[in-house]
Specification:
six-stranded antiparallel β-sheet; six-stranded parallel β-sheet; 15 helices
């Protein structure tokens, strides 16, 4: 008879139940999250542990390892990942749970090689962190105190041994052998991630009991017709009774309307609900996003046996691929409207999974919506996000391009591996398919492209395994489990079969010649991709983030610590190479960080604006990457500590549904008006040719109109005859668009000068400017004058208003708060002399409460001039 050891720690547990009808019990749950304890196998001492969490989080909390993100501590901490660990706790079970016919131990996330024991008896094995594991445990439970133990084997020797016996190619920055294990690949190292292959119970764990039957699956399909939507609710029931069972479906609309149906599962394969006058769900920037609640209950007479609750949005969504004049289209169509996808690639938010939190995810995605994203791609080398991620995307209107978790590796499709992948795919598809934000399920990241163009050992059997996995097994799972969701075999791809997977004229493209190939930014303009799902440019993180992982003596870009926090070996050199093309050499590390971020923003802007000018031919631009998993130099627009880099502020402008952008060639400039809204837009395009002191040399204005969902050339300008080589160093073009009507509050200020009526105040809290500036020489050659920037703040109730002035043309004016942080309504903007730029910031968005006097005292301004000019 097993008994817990006398030192075994007893943690609290939550015992949940619900009653319906005449005392009926359903879905009885004992939640096992919370306080556990952990130790390395072979150690005598136990340490407190948190579940969900991870080994490294628990060791860090106990003071057994240093912060792996500080300096070069990653090297020290990595040693902890080669050991095995065990978790345990005691919990109480009552008669109510034991009275259930069936009881399962539900493990939502075991990372990764785990054996589970209950009251001394082996329950089961796990080898896939992406799956939910269910173990039947009723015979092993007893009334009163019970003991659970989970033993984790290190993934490091596992993949090393597997690779030694069967070498499989994978991304060179990662540990060799990672494709052998269904564990998030980035945890083994990537060109932006540390090598910290952690372990642990990283998602919820619980006991769940059921009587008579349970709902094993619920799927809701939609069929749209004029003025109505038919919902077809498919249910699968696992039963161990011959009693008559019924299913009820209740659909609640925001605002009060309700539809209710009840049918016997003996006669109904599916239940239909007709929703008349439906309120449609739209992506960000296109309309409202009402979410309907669908509740499905399984009954035995008056007793409720089980229940599922889903939130859905009523919409049609398809991937449009049609032959056209340029090749084949690739566009998302929502409710009959073809959208230009504006967004970025999402990677896991932390390498220590115990630090993941719904509020953190919601904040990150809100930053995307604030920058006018309508799409986000979940990259295939990370994790399937938690439910809170998709809930937030539903509410914010972010279409989700969801990769399956395969990236930059070759996979051996053994029978066991194939079965594991099928279960993983079924789990994740069933979990996320009801979300209106889900736009696409994609097989993998870059492996079709790799098979056709990259160099690694290639054999016929592994090539056939690729085709079976990504062009047979996964699409079949999607067809069966989510028949209304599009499947795409890889990213990039032209449709599969190794048929030119990075083709400019079909499918989606990953374009990296500007960054990795060191080509000029203008190279983006040579291509008219149908959908660019990856492209990007690196920068250093914000200076406060650099200070968080360095000591003063480390703050040189080529110091060991700074290079340790740069995981792409050639990238610091790449930054300096591109910097030499555009800017003067910065005077210190802080200035270098600033200029590297401006470089990044300008590179991505060049590509996005070009592709948006050719809306219709190109229908998507998702830059790499949105976020970081640790403090690092990377391609992100928001760094690990949540600081917006200039790129994210630029994205707020170049992703705005209404965009005025410039195409320049020498001294010729074309101004294009791009309208991604559902209504025609008309207004006035204004431009000024100014000298370095912002004196007007020439100016003009012209009416312009852009139909809904279009891009038009509004103005062609040619200054070749008036600008000699010396003039070009002292003259710039300023341009802006004033709409006749706009939904946002009117504000004061052109892109550079108050009174020109070129800005629109609104959006996420500041000036949304439809315009910008053009230099006719690289910024390093422009004759910038001392801008003498000045600033003062005013209290506008829930916001502070920041008034910025300049005495000469200032480029990339940045507003900062010393010792604090905030997201400003706009930042890193160009400013002409003589005007005032007003930028607002929500008080609630400040990193700490500040009075007006404190806020004013902390304000700091910097521009490009200050990065190389020594006082």
């Amino acid at each position: 008879m097993w008994a817990p050891p006398p030192t075994c720690w007893t943690g609290g547990c939550n015992f949940d139940s619900a009653s319906y009808g005449k005392g009926g019990k359903w879905g009885l749950i004992v939640r096992l999250n919370g306080e556990w304890r952990v130790r390395a196998k072979g150690d005598a001492d136990w340490l407190p542990a948190k579940v969900p969490g991870s080994v490294l989080c628990d060791l860090l909390a106990a003071g057994r390892i240093p912060d792996p993100y500080y300096r070069e501590n990653e090297r020290i901490v990595r040693a902890a990942t080669v050991r095995d660990y065990e978790y345990e706790r005691l919990f109480e079970v009552e008669d109510g749970l034991l009275g259930c016919d069936r009881i399962w131990l539900i493990c939502r996330g075991l990372d990764t090689l785990a054996d589970v024991y209950l009251n001394g008896q082996w329950v089961g094995h796990a080898c896939n962190m992406h799956r939910t594991h269910e173990f039947p445990v009723k015979p092993l439970l007893r009334k009163g105190t019970n003991h659970i133990r989970v033993v984790f084997r290190s993934p490091v020797p596992y993949i090393a041994n597997a690779h030694a016996s069967d070498p499989l190619w994978g991304a060179p920055e990662a540990m060799a052998g990672f494709p052998h294990l269904r564990k998030a690949h980035f945890m083994f190292g990537w060109d932006w991630a540390p090598t910290l292959p952690d372990m642990g119970i990283w998602r919820d764990i619980s006991l769940q009991g059921f009587c008579a039957a349970r709902l094993s699956d619920v799927r809701v399909d939609q069929h749209h017709d004029a003025g109505r939507v038919r919902l077809t609710v498919h249910t699968a029931v696992e039963r161990w009774t011959d009693d008559v069972l019924d299913v009820t479906v209740c659909v609640d609309e925001p605002g009060g309307r309700r539809w209710l149906r009840r049918e016997s599962i003996e006669t109904a394969q599916a239940i239909h609900v007709e929703v008349e006058q439906p309120r449609l769900w739209w992506p960000n920037g296109c309309g409202e996003r009402p979410l309907y609640a669908v509740t499905v209950k399984l009954h035995r007479g008056g007793e409720v046996l089980d229940e599922r609750r889903l939130r859905i949005g009523l919409r049609t969504l398809r991937l449009v691929r049609e032959a056209d004049a340029w090749g084949e289209s690739f566009a998302f169509e929502v409710n009959g409207v073809r959208l230009f996808a504006r967004g970025a690639n999402y990677v896991p938010e932390d390498s220590l999974l115990g630090r993941l939190h719904p509020e953190r995810t919601r904040r990150l995605l809100s930053h995307c919506a604030d920058a006018h994203f309508n799409c986000i791609r979940v990259w295939g080398g990370g994790l399937y996000p938690d439910d809170d991620f998709y809930d937030a995307c539903d509410e914010l209107g972010l279409l989700v391009w969801q990769d399956f978790m395969f990236a930059c590796g070759v996979y051996r499709l053994t029978p066991a591996f194939a079965e594991e992948v099928c279960r993983e795919a079924q789990d994740v598809v069933r979990r996320i398919r009801h979300h209106p934000s889900l736009a696409l399920l994609c097989g993998n990241n870059e492996m079709e492209w790799a098979w056709t163009e990259w160099t690694f050992p290639k054999t016929d059997d592994l090539r056939q395994d690729y085709l079976r996995l990504f062009e047979q097994i996964l699409p079949e799972v999607v067809r069966r489990e989510a028949p209304q969701t599009a499947y795409w075999p890889a990213s990039p791809s032209s449709g599969g079969g190794f048929d030119r997977p990075n083709d400019e004229n079909r499918g989606d493209v990953h374009y990296w010649d500007v960054w990795h190939g060191q080509k000029p930014f203008a190279e983006y303009r040579r291509f008219y991709f149908r959908f660019c799902s990856e492209f990007g440019f690196q920068s250093l993180p914000a200076m406060p983030t650099i200070e968080s992982f360095t000591e003063p003596e480390d703050r040189n870009v080529f110091s060991p610590v700074m290079e340790h926090h740069q995981k792409n070996g050639a990238s610091n050199g790449n930054i300096l190479f591109h910097l030499s093309r555009h800017f003067r050499y910065p005077k210190d590390l802080s200035s270098l960080a600033f200029v590297s971020q401006i470089l990044q923003a300008e590179a991505v802007r060049c590509g996005v604006e070009h592709w948006r000018r050719h809306r219709g031919r190109c229908m998507g631009a998702l830059y790499w990457q949105l976020n970081d998993c640790w403090p690092v130099a990377s391609w992100s627009s928001i760094d690990y500590n949540g600081h917006w880099k200039p790129l994210h502020y630029f994205a707020r402008r170049f992703f705005h549904p209404l965009l005025l952008s410039a195409w320049e060639d020498g001294c010729r400039v074309s101004l294009w008006l791009t309208n991604d809204t559902l209504a025609d837009v008309s207004g006035t395009v204004r431009w000024c040719l100014r000298d370095a002191r912002s004196n007007v040399l020439r100016e003009g204005a012209l009416g312009a109109r852009a139909p809904a969902l279009s891009s038009v050339c509004a103005v062609d300008l040619d200054f070749e005859g008036m600008l000699g080589w010396e003039d070009r160093r002292q003259v710039y073009l300023e341009y802006w668009f004033t709409p006749d009507e706009w939904d946002e509050e009117p504000g004061a200020g052109s892109p550079a000068a108050r009174g020109n009526r070129g800005g629109i105040t609104g959006g996420a809290g500041g000036d949304t400017v439809f315009g910008g500036t053009v230099l006719f020489v690289p910024a390093k050659h422009f004759a910038f004058q001392p801008p003498a920037l000045s600033v003062h703040a005013e209290d506008w109730g829930e916001r502070y208003a920041v008034h910025v002035r300049s005495e000469a043309f200032a480029k990339y004016v940045a507003i900062r708060l010393a010792g604090a942080d905030a997201v400003f309504g706009d930042n890193f903007f160009d400013l002409s002399a003589g005007g005032s730029r007003i930028v607002t910031v929500k008080k609630a968005a400040l990193s700490r409460p500040l009075t007006l006097a404190e806020f004013q005292q902390r304000l700091r301004l910097i521009s490009l001039y200050d990065t190389y000019h020594h006082e």
